[in-house]
UniProtKB/TrEMBL annotation:
The protein, known as: Uncharacterized protein
UniProt KW Cell membrane keyword: no
Transmembrane segments: 24-49, 56-78, 98-120, 132-152, 206-231, 252-275, 287-309, 329-353, 373-395
Gene Ontology terms describing biological process: amino acid import across plasma membrane
Source organism: Meloidogyne enterolobii
Annotated PANTHER family: SODIUM- AND CHLORIDE-DEPENDENT GLYCINE TRANSPORTER 2, SODIUM/CHLORIDE DEPENDENT TRANSPORTER
Domain of life: Eukaryota
Lineage: Eukaryota, Metazoa, Ecdysozoa, Nematoda, Chromadorea
Amino acid sequence: MWRPPHLDFITANVYMPIFHQKDWFFPFKSGAILLIIWTVTGFLIFIGIRKLGKTFVCLKGIIGVAMLLNMLMSLYYTPADADWHEFFKFDLSPLSSFGIWADAVGFVIVSLALGTGSVQKISSLSDFNENFFYNALITSAADILFSLISGITHFSSIASMAHRIYPEDEIPHRIKFMFTHEHVTPITMFPEHIIWSTKFGWIFGVLHYLAIGFLGITHTVVCFDMVKFAFEELVLKFKQREAFLGYDEDNKIQFSATCGVVIFGIIASIGLIGPNGITVSKLWIEFSSIGFMLVSLSEIFAINIHYGFRRYLANVQTMLQNHQHKSHLLYTLSAIWYYLFAPTFIVVTILFKVYKNKSIKVLEYSFPSGFQFYGWMVVILAAITVLVPLIHYLLAFAKIHAVSHIFEPLPSWGPINYNDFSKNLKNERAASVNI
């Protein structure tokens, strides 16, 4: 069977993900570090340790340094005639293909893997107790920058590989072919592995996976904790029969502030997918399909929120832990959706794709008609989740006539004191039982 020359290059120089094990090469040192990291992750999730962000705060900068180094090295190996104009090529034709809507799930997953959300994860380790609107803008700008870095790295890595392997007269065609080849796609999702083929490249791999691994630990543990908190809050509210929308004006203002954060976070999340959308759409027939990115924005509500919007919900969680403002059924249901049901739908969708293709393949494939409803289910449920706070936000804004009342947190907001909150929760439960 004929094998493209770039597959031999990948086999000899690049680590292949586990789902393409036919002929893979694994750098032992980085692989051992990765195994240790995720073993520790599982242990910490099992015992439920929190506040790991402060422990590993020194690793926050490694992600940025690693991504920048990755981009610079990929540009160093990329010849000048790499057709950079293709990087910003627009194509709206995929909008007419309804099968693309289902494949958008895979698109967004790959896009997130390329960098979107990584800076959001870093920001989640910082105290977020000042003006969250300002912090959100800074975080969004930083994430866009890192997404562009990741996209340039992806493009230049492919071009560099093509120039090393193919004759000059075949390079334009071969670059486009490599962008759509099923075995090249998973490799270029992780361009740091191409750097491993250079001298001392394994050191970069170790640092990269140390940072990603420890940030992954904090992300996963906090997500489990958020789901646990949401269910506890929901049960307590129903036991107390409390008025979920509150009694006094301060409570309503706080509820409006919650909705304002939710809406702004969703808008920011949509904006953040843009740079990586331009990048990942190259994996399809054309280098850059903006139409495919627009389709995927419908599903980014559920997926990117799960990775990048956790900081906003954590800020709302801090507000809700104030004894005077515990009146938000909306937040509780949203947290359960964002951290439990949305990821579940995403996993089910990807599993159907894997079952159909016998591998993780997103090219030239759409769901069978019987399975397309899973992609649409993510869109519909995410839209419903957004609709309720949007309506309440608009009503509150029309009544208050002051944006500052919606986007400015009260002085009671601050870092979470989980121990005190647990005690208060137990006391409220005891009081509800006595009543």
